[in-house]
Structures are given as structure tokens and as C-alpha cells.
Specification:
mainly beta; Jelly Rolls; two-stranded antiparallel sheet; about 35% strand; globular
């Protein structure tokens, strides 16, 4: 599938909680901030300006066999949470069940923890007759993700 476009809402949400995330051990109280999103950047806490880099945190097809949580990535996709999954990315995923059951979510402004709603335009094609090798029993070490995710502006 190819990700053509990601349109973001005008506002993102940032939640910081004691015990959660990278800085969680340093926090004594929780906080939720609504962050305005400009055309090319966001500003956190009135001082920190970050570039806008929209991405899809979770995208995948249904796995073969029983249903699983999307929290762990595998050959079917899932929770990849990487800025590579953005506009211009071509992603190959297997069709393990009738209809593929493609799903996506966890939109972010750019791997910063800024959660945001949006609209994503994708184009999907089925490549018939292709078999996927299992990543569970590889003959050699797994290739880096860049070999199965191709990023290119169209």
C-alpha cells in the first residue's frame, strides 16, 4: 500500500503521567496539554518548537490464526510507531485472511507523544501469488526494516 496523504487536526494532545514514558520517574503529578498544530511545526510549553512530521503509529492487516493485540509488530504490521510510516511510504503487508482487514490508528505529529486525529489517504493493491517468508523462523538474521518498507515521494 502507498500512503499518499496525512491531514492533521488543528490540535494535538500531550499527556504526561507519573511512572509513564521516558520522563515518568521524574514526575509527581499528571498533566494534559492541548497543543496547537501549525502548517509546519508545533510549539510545546510556549518555548519548544518542533517540526511537524505526521506519522501512523499502528497499521497492519489481520494475522493468520487467532486475533492478537496490535501492540506488538510482526509480519502483518501492528504497532511500529516509527516516523518512516508517513506520507510517501510504500508498505508491503501480507493478506492472511479474506478481505485483509487493514486497520490503522495512533496518529502522531512526529514521534513526540503528541497524539492527534487526522485523515489518511492510502492506496492499496493486492499482489496475488506471492508468499511471505515467516519472520519467526528466519534462516539468517532479520533484515533491517528499510528492506521491507520503501519510502519514496510520488
Amino acid at each position: 500500500m502507498h500512503i499518499h496523504r496525512i491531514e492533521l487536526d488543528k490540535r494535538a494532545v500531550l499527556a504526561t503521567l507519573p511512572g509513564a514514558g521516558v520522563a515518568g520517574a521524574r514526575l509527581t503529578a499528571g498533566r494534559i496539554d492541548f497543543v496547537p498544530v501549525a502548517e509546519d511545526h508545533v510549539v510545546l510549553f510556549d518555548t519548544l518548537r518542533l517540526p511537524r512530521n505526521p506519522m501512523i503509529g499502528v497499521i497492519g492487516t489481520a494475522p493468520a490464526g487467532e486475533a492478537v493485540s496490535c501492540g506488538t509488530p510482526d509480519t502483518y504490521g501492528g504497532y511500529m510507531d516509527t516516523k518512516i510510516i508517513s506520507e510517501g511510504t510504500t508498505l508491503l503487508l501480507p493478506v492472511n485472511v479474506a478481505g485483509a482487514l487493514l486497520a490503522m490508528g495512533d496518529g502522531e505529529v512526529g514521534v513526540s507523544g503528541l497524539e492527534i486525529k487526522g485523515v489518511v489517504e492510502v492506496e492499496a493493491h493486492v499482489i496475488k501469488g506471492r508468499r511471505w517468508r515467516s519472520r519467526r523462523m528466519p534462516a539468517t538474521p532479520l533484515p533491517p526494516p528499510r528492506l521491507w518498507i520503501r519510502r519514496r515521494k510520488w
